[in-house]
User: What shape does this take?
Amino acid sequence: MTLTEINFDGIVGPSHNYAGLSLGNIASASHAGDPSYPRAAALQGIAKMRGNLARLGVQGFLLPLPRPNLALTEALACDGSEPPQLRAAPWSASSMWTANAATVSPGPDTADGRCHLTPANLVTMLHRAQEWPDTQAQLKIAFADHRHFAVHDAVPPTFGDEGAANHMRLCGAHDAPGVEVFVYGRTGGPFPARQHEQASRLVARRHGLAPERTVFIEQNPAAIAAGAFHNDVVAVANGPVLFTHDMAFADQQGAYDAMRAAFPALEVVEVPSSAVSLKEAIRTYLFNAQLLTLPDGSMALIVPEECRESAAVWGWAETMLAGNGPIRQVIPVDVRQSMANGGGPACLRLRVVCDPATVDSRFLLDEAKADLIERVIAARWPAQIDPADLGSEVLANSAIAARLALLEALGLGELG
Assistant: This one.
């Protein structure tokens, strides 16, 4: 087998809207009630995928989930008199952020040598808690080969689990045994801690991870209070490198020591608050970036355009690149529609280390398939959704038909 890391990006769904449903997500709250542009959002996402396909030679994708979720609409007894946020929840296109789809442990790390995936239960937020059964159904098709994959049920709902957004992997190479780092939060401050410690520990046990190669770290409560609702808003790892803000963890030095004890080759690239404030890091999503190992062995950081527009962030990036650190390129991408709803480049992707030949090829991108997806989006995705449109039967029928058209085009009608 040839193991490689595949990024599975979420295709932005036709009901993409700004309802401000995510408590603790500053960007989502600040754009609540604004018009959204689903077609532009989806095309921006495909453009990002094309870029990484060209850089890495492999790229996956996951499909939008059924929206509006008519079962949830019925369960909420929506009749037009309910609060706007309840009405909006069944319409949420938040499954586009596949960093929350699951936690993934590659075969080199697990007791049985298979790649294990546990869908995130996302119980903290109503609009996200509806996702995991449909997400699991999709994962079971994409990773159906039981010789190489195990797709589990979600963690029981008492424990909040938000998936790969709170999980990092340190390794010498993607196909080598690694150290898995789980970052959890504790309740306190104005916003909820979404990732619970016991959820992380349960996933690690379920995946058969060796205790000596598993690390559990508490996120800095100040980061959560500032709007870092997931760890990937303040830290990201790739290979032996941890790229992090100096306020990411409750005990910053203790976190480094714990990771280094399990993985001595750890290389930390720390951004100090004196250079980039926590507020600016969260506003620009400097850390909600894709840190990639390129074919030549160097690393590139894929960041939102908002980073280039920030004097503090771009100034720090230029200083970093002038040195001899492991990150040799910083590449901005336009994902403004996702950013406005609180998701940067890293939110849009789930990292899976596996042999591409073991994945259902319908979920793997090539240029022809990207062209096909773009044609369906251009023809069927709404150009704009206003807040007052949510609940409209006309919009519901349009969104449902658009998604089914994409499934049919890709030969994935069984997801209908």
Residues 4-415 form a domain with the L-arginine/glycine Amidinotransferase; Chain A fold (CATH 3.75.10.20). The first strand starts at residue 4 and ends at 10. The CA atoms of residues 68 and 396 lie 6 Å apart. The mean pLDDT is 96.
